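tool_call: predict_structure(chain=1)
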Amino acid sequence: MLEALTLLLVCQLAGEACVRFLALPVPGPVLGMVLLLAVLILRGWLKKTDRPPDDLATTADGLLGHLSLLFVPAGVGVMLHLPLILREWPAIALALAGSTILTIIVTALVMRLLVRGSDKPGPERKA
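tool_result:
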């Protein structure tokens, strides 16, 4: 479990370092997840497996089981800045509604493209 947690933290640290040094417009943890994905793909390719290591899966499940604790600081921030949120609620509501609608539209378009592409029978599919 310690090795798995170390791998997760090293990938996050590498992502943060790359973002800071290269001035990338991406959050460090997101780049860290991409690096972790690359490590897992390379590991699977080298070891001819499609499953993550058991200790990494157990560690990730443990972290996901306590994910709600990570929202406590955000809730405290909301309560701390409640007067500002009440003053700016129309802009916040418009941004939330607009981004939600835009996400639904983009997701539907991507799904339509993917479903359309799967209609063509390939060598591994029988018509």
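agent: Residues 89-117 form the longest helix (29 residues). Proceeding to next step.
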